[in-house]
Amino acid sequence: MLIAEYTLDHPILRETLHGVDDIVVEWEKSHTKLDGSMYMLAWIDADDYDEVEAAIAEDPTMGNPTVRTEAGGRRLYRLEYDEYRRETTLHPVLVETGGVLLEAVGTNDGWRYRGQFPDREAFQQLHRFCHGHGIDITIDGIYEQADWLADDDSELTRPQRALLAEAVESGYLDIPRDCTLDDVGERLGISRNAASERFRRGVKNLVTQVVDTDADVDVDADG
């Protein structure tokens, strides 16, 4: 099995993602109803939800945004796919190839995906689908699942561990910094978006394992 990370300039919510500053859309699931219509559940994080809903109302790919719940300042929206845009969704090709969408996050930079595929040919089918529908795709990384999974209880994946180690080695965590996160990603042969996402998730996993977040903490002004 393969784990693939890739970035798409996908038409779904493209205008909304480009038009609302600092918006983050985290796909939860997509569903096809008996009549063939489709909807998406997605967590949206933004400063101004009136602006988000106004942008979706003008977006030609989705409509009828309905808030299902709210938590931690984010809102879970139900969004309906435009009939024409349904043909560009990745769901059918994933089902056909045996692929599984693990994560999809939309930002001002586009959609970042992480998926599981049975083999490279299955991922190539997705690649051909994107090109056939005029969807730009950038491959951020492809890994054997055994290489992706952590080999201990730290919950850090091997790619996350490699990036954090490179960040320390290259001086990204020094004060002042000796390089940028772009530089760290370049040394590992991955894109800026992939490096940023991997760094954020790696730090989160590391802190979760090392720090007792439920414990009372005494703050020392001297650090």
Q: How big a fraction of the residues is strand? A: 25-35%
Q: Largest sheet, order of strands side by side?
A: 4-5-3-2-6-7-1-8
Distance between the termini: 45 Å
Q: Tally the helices: what do you get? A: 8
Low-confidence parts:
148-153
Mean pLDDT metric: 83
According to DSSP, the number of beta strands is: 8
Report the biggest beta sheet as strand number plus sense, adding barrel if it closes: 8 strands, antiparallel
Helix-strand pattern: EHEEHEEHEEHEHHHH
The gyration radius over C-alpha positions equals 19 Å
Residue share in helices? 25-40%
Helical/strand content category: alpha+beta
Shape: globular
The count of domains is: 2
Quickly describe the structure.
This protein is of the alpha+beta class. The protein has helices at 14-19, 49-58, 91-97, 120-132, 145-148, 158-170, 181-188, 192-210, and strands spanning 2-8, 24-32, 38-45, 62-71, 74-81, 100-107, 110-117, 137-144.
Structure description:
By secondary structure, the protein is α+β, with helices and mostly antiparallel strands. The protein folds into two domains: 142 residues, no CATH class; 61 residues, Arc Repressor Mutant, subunit A. Helices cover 36% and strands 30% of the residues. The protein has an eight-stranded antiparallel sheet. A hairpin with a 5-residue loop joins strand 2 and strand 3. Helix 6 crosses helix 7 and helix 6 crosses helix 8. The protein starts with a strand and ends in a 13-residue tail after the last helix. About 3% of the residues have low confidence.
